[in-house]
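Record 1 of the preview.
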Amino acid sequence: MTNRSQSPRLGPPMIRRLDLAAAVRRLPTELEAGNAARATLYASPKWRNERRAFLKLHPACITPGCGQRAVVIDHRDGHEGDWPARFWNQKTWQPMCLICHARKSRAELTSWRGRGHENLYQVSGA
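->
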């Protein structure tokens, strides 16, 4: 039986070395964290089922003068701000063809960068 009144003696305090050459883990930017969250949602079975049903009801691109087959559901309000609360709201969805959606997304990204967010969005190779 050990005597609790006698605690083991602790040795000298440990000295830690700081390795300045060690790899530093970079925290994800707001955009990267949002992209990861969206990727999870877009890969979910719930999204695939909702998307399929929505495109069945809305088969044509909503862009005026386009009329191509819709293959993308665009979130009209984009993915800024409180997007998780709006993600499943079908009132904010619109059917689009791939080309029109790419144009809209490019315009949104250009506008977003113009507001001073270019440091948060890094395209590989750019």
